[in-house]
Amino acid sequence: MPCVRFVPLGKEKVIRAGATILAAANQCDVPVGQSCSGDGICGWCRVTVLEGREHLAPPGPLEERLMKEKEFLQNERAACLARVQGDITVTTTYWGHE
Ligand code: FES
């Protein structure tokens, strides 16, 4: 089963394949910004994928539109929509960076 690592928090969560990054974060009390409860509208759940980008399912139409509208960088994904298929490492600007 895939493992999602959250840096620099030092937390990680093994989840079932196909679960979202947000689901993994919620299961180990990692805060992820959001204002649309995972409807793919707000873009606040943006995370940077440091490792394992190829282990995420390709963005569906909803995430693709969101990524375009919110000008996501190439290594950014919407945590509420991106589905994990293998080990990944993610970060955000607000997880304890100094
Ligand atoms: S929580 Fe709003 S787009 Fe992901």
Q: What ranges have pLDDT less than 50 throughout 5 or more consecutive residues? A: none
Q: What integer is the average pLDDT?
A: 96
Q: Helix amount, in percent?
A: 10-25%
Strand runs, count: 5
Look at the helices and sheets and give the structural class.
Answer: alpha+beta
Shape, please? globular
Order of helices and strands: EEHEHEE
Assembly type of the chains comes to single chain
**Radius of gyration using CA atoms only:** 12 Å
What is the percentage of strand-forming residues? 15-25%
User: How many domains make up the coordinates?
Assistant: 1
Write out the distinct hetero groups bound to the structure.
FE2/S2 (inorganic) cluster
* Strands ordered across the widest β-sheet: 2-1-5-3-4
- For this structure, what is the CATH class? Alpha Beta
- The name CATH uses for the topology is Ubiquitin-like (UB roll)
Architecture (CATH level 2) name: Roll
Distance between the termini: 32 Å
The number of helices is 2
Report the biggest beta sheet as strand number plus sense, adding barrel if it closes. Answer: 5 strands, mixed
Query: Mind telling me the CATH superfamily name?
Result: Beta-grasp domain
